[in-house]
Amino acid sequence: MTVPLPPEASATHPAPQGHSNLVGLLEFAARTYASRTAVRTTGEESLTWSELDLAGRRLAGKLAAAGVGRGDRVLVSLAPGPRFATVLSAVLRLGAVLVPTRHQAPAYELEWQIRDADPILVVADGRTADTVEQAGIAVMRLADLSGEDVPARPEERIDGSDTAFLLYTSGSTGRPKGIVCPHAAVLFAVRAIAERVGYRPGDIVWNRLPISFDYGLYQLLLCALAGAELVVPTSELSARELAEMRAARATVVPVVPALAQTLARLARRDRRPTEVRLFTNTGAALPPAHSAQLRTAFPGASVVLMYGMSECKRITVAPPDEDLVHPGSVGRPLPGTRLFIVDSAGVPLPPGETGEIVSAGPHVMAGYWRAPTETARRFRLAPDGLGMAVFTGDRGRLDEAGRLYFVGRDDDIFKYRGWRMSRTELEVVLADIPGVDAAAALPPGPDDRLCVWAETSLSPGQVLDGIRARLGPERTPDLCVVLDRLPLTAHGKVDAAALHRLARTQS
Fold first, then answer.
1. How far is 322 from 329, CA to CA, in rounded Å?
2. Do domains 22-158 and 413-505 have the same CATH topology?
3. What's the pLDDT at 16?
4. Domain 413-505 has CATH 3.30.300.30
5. Where does the record place the AMP-dependent synthetase/ligase domain (predicted)?
6. φ, ψ of residue 501 in degrees (nearest 5)
7. Burial, 214: exposed, middle or buried (Cβ in 10 Å; 0-12, 13-18, 19+)?
8. Strand partners, 342
9. DSSP 3-state assignment of 171?
10. Inter-CA distances, 343 with 172, 194, 222, 258, 346, Å
11. Which residues contact 160 (CB under 8 A, 6 or more apart)?
12. Alpha-carbon radius of gyration of the chain
């Protein structure tokens, strides 16, 4: 089945449709919402939209003086907030490419992204800046972002086809792949998502999502379109989260399932009202029980479910609370896009039949950076022959009204704690740990626990510590099982069923 939707006019957001790049969007916000706060931290560091515009222009001059030009990659490892937003504005103005990475990312992850992205400059602070500098790569430290102004050179003319971002996501090759995100595709996705989600002028968006995660990065752009305010907490997630949200007067909270569970649990203990009116979910499917917990804990707040992948940003968005009427649905395709459910031969299937989810339209990104084989596998001609499409590798079905119901994943890519991961990536990391002779990883089973198995003289804790040092705590599995030998099938492949049985015995 194919679900086409025509472009819809937006009555909520007045952004001129003629803008073909993200600099135009930020300039629109500076003109239209000049004195409104654009982004602030709970530490009270803040910029208005006009101040962000001016700061971005000034920093663009410094970056140009440092040799940054059109098409150059600038890798940024900063905490979310006004300074990151300033760097984003400056990089885009020069026609350069922003490569956001996790703030204080493990050296293993950072080194790979630097090798792959080949940035002309890294903007970082703390130990990350020290690590990069020791490697002989040009660094601009946090302190260098302020100080004496450098006259800005004439700004580049930016086309919609120019690359805005290089966003890294895990893939079946075992290494994170950089997704090439053109200005036009990102801008289209921002507008289309905004039409469905409905951020309002004056909304205060509480953003705990990392900027290396596409939906965390897009929050600033969604706020620019709506005239909303982005608030970034500077403290770690704790029992004071609701108190901080109240102090910030947060009205919109994007969540991944783990964060949704935490907020619902905290709200059950602290029943004082908040001003939250909307939760949007991404990163992984939000189970119905978790949606119900959010609604109970935050009376009057709506929940928006959606489905997508970074390769096209977002595929479907449901209207607020549609899951109460159509349980299991993750919404209809974005306006102006096309959605297909296809069989193994790529032939569209009728409503009710399960197949691979395929999305086509202006939101489709330009492929993977320096990965032609992976690009050819994921980005192919759409089933209707009209342009390129993303073949997601995920399975789903459509109802007669065009609503998507997500079923599962075909390959070894999976979501864990909101992070897109793959078994191969984990196995590559395991192989990098001294003392591990052989290892295997599988997607989480029905209990949602992520387990790895290793032939090693190390203890399970030492193996997990090795993974943690390379991927960070949020992507470290729940369990490691040490074996004398990995179980194999008659064909010599790892016996997945046997491994899952072994994992259950380790509970």
1. 8
2. no
3. 44
4. yes
5. 28-369
6. -65, -40
7. buried
8. 348, 356
9. coil
10. 21, 31, 35, 33, 5
11. 20, 21, 182, 183, 184, 187
12. 23
Q: How far is CA 388 from the centre of its chain?
A: 22
pLDDT of residue 11: 34
Rounded Cα gap, residues 359 and 185, in angstroms: 13
Whole-number Å distance between alpha carbons of 307 and 315: 6
Q: Are 53 and 33 in contact (CB under 8 A)?
A: no
Cβ neighbours, 10 Å, residue 289: 10
d(CA 480, CA 127) in angstroms, rounded, equals 29
pLDDT value at residue 172: 44
Place of tokens 């001129």: 16
Give Dmax over CA atoms of the chain in angstroms: 69
Amino acid at 450: L
pLDDT value for 151: 62
Which pLDDT value is given to residue 352?
98
Residues 446 and 205: their CA atoms lie apart, in Å, by 33
* Model pLDDT, residue 499: 85
- The closest of 215, 213, 214, 250 to 232, measured between CA atoms, is 250
- Residues paired with 178 in a beta bridge: 168
Q: How far apart are CA 255 and CA 294, in angstroms?
A: 11
Residues of the chain with pLDDT under 50: 4-16, 172-173, 490-492
Count other Cβ atoms within 10 Å, centred on residue 148: 6
Structure tokens at 67: 């040799």
Q: Token match 């194999």: residue?
A: 488
Residue for token pair 């029943």: 271
Name the architecture of domain 22-158: 3-Layer(aba) Sandwich (3.40)
Please state the separation of Cα 96 from the chain's center in Å: 20
Candidates 207, 212, 258, 255; CA nearest to 478 is: 258
- HSE-CB of 320 using CA atoms within 13 angstroms: 14
What are the sequence ranges of the domains in the chain?
22-158, 413-505
Q: Which residues contact 219 (CB under 8 A, 6 or more apart)?
A: 205, 207, 209, 230, 254
Structure tokens at 347: 């032939």
Cα 68–Cα 368–Cα 316 angle in degrees, nearest 5: 110
- The dihedral built from the CA positions of residue 418, 392, 312 and 332, taken in this order, carries a sign that is negative
